[in-house]
Input
Amino acid sequence: MKKTRTLITPITRKRLARFRKMKLAWWSLWILVGLYALSLGSELLCNDKPLYVRYEGKSHFPVFFYYPEDTFVLDGEKTRPDYKKIVQLPAFTEHSENYMVFAPIPFGPFETTDPKSIETSDHVKVIITQVPRVGTVGVNPAMEIIRSNQAGTFFSKDERTLRGVELSQYLHLPAEIIQAINKRFSNSPSPRIDGPAQDAMGRYLEISLPAFEKQSRAPALVRLTIRDALESAAFTQTLAFDRNLDLAVGPRDFLEGLPEETRNRITENVQNMYAGYAEPFFFVHQGMRLQAAFGKEEVRFPYPPTRNHLMGIDSAGRDVLARILYGLRTSLSFGLILVLVSMLMGTAAGAVQGYYGGFIDISGQRLTEIWSAIPFLYVMILLGSVYGRSFILLLVCYAIFNWIGISYYMRAEFLRLRRQAFVESAKCMGIPDYTIMIRHILPNGLVPIITFFPFFLVGAIGALAALDYLGFGLPPPTPSWGELLAQAQSFRWAWWLILYPSLALFIVMLLGVFIGEGVRNAFDPKQYSRLR
Output
């Protein structure tokens, strides 16, 4: 049997050497290991508790040990301390010998950010946009305006002063529009027509005439619909005022060109905005109907990335970077434990079936097929509703179904190796069956386990993210990438909730695929020679 073991070592060394020559897979392995190592030390990188506290000549390590509030405040309270408020007390601000050392990212995965701690602009924004106008005029055969509805704004005239005035004084109509109007007065059928027109100042407007069918008598009036042209209805201007009502952002000449009444109304609404709320209003300027809307930047969750929160804040006010880092540890730990447990169970089942064969093999195969037909998601929902969602429950439920695939491969390996000469020799020597399976057959049948391990790991991480996204995974508020993506579905404008969790999931799964490809090629000499 020693001879068999000495044959395995050189083969394993050759495969490892081939894997190391595949730089993409080799570096992907170390990058993934490094990321997992960082995630294991998440408390030292992202934490709302200080790493070290020096108080009254004594050292404290809140990141590792719990200290009640009375330890630092001396108020008799045994509650959990808020270190960020304690560090602002005179005992720390006025005495240099008392201090706290926080983590590089001083935010925990469960900490709700205080909106007052986020720096925002104190300016009131005034967004002035053009509102497309719509009006109608009714003209007689002499092209005189008889009726008018909301058309005075186009010509800066009162509605009453338009009556009896020839339309040509305000609009230069194209020949197609005039011809369509004449057809209607002659009681001739005419389709709907739209066309441009120019007012007295040379601005373009859109003129529309509805479709006309022949009637019992010719109409006395023809109605024209007037609209702002789309090209001219794109005016927008943004102004910003400080608390002194001074213009901080925006062109001053535009503000000074507005009527005094409009300027006074804008400044009055800016004051109201600082006090609480200001209603938007409409006004006419240079022949345009404009709307002035007022707004002030407020902190509402989810909030985009800032200097302190590099990946933004989620809908509950928690730092996204901290939750992604802690979620990395959760995902990789879940994936590694699940794959190890699944492969142990699958290897045990496949080894027993493959080694003994016969009735045991057939019975095991039929039981495996029956077990694989049970819907995993239904079982997960049922157990979660009864016992509540938890990391252990999810791991157990997934593991009892995830072993089936690897059992088929290990069964095939044991069926192939059980007839080898070294196995027959071990049986003749009276070595027990479990010793033969573990010490002699299993080391020679590890190829499926090693080659499928990275792919199984990637599948487990993706499955956890999918279950968390659907709401059947880890219980809140456990940091999870899938939970962040579920928030992104509710807040689709929050691009940081979509980008950063998706990018983290993509990078980890891509690294796992690269490692899996490298391992597969290293264990397959044909693939390795082709790559060379």
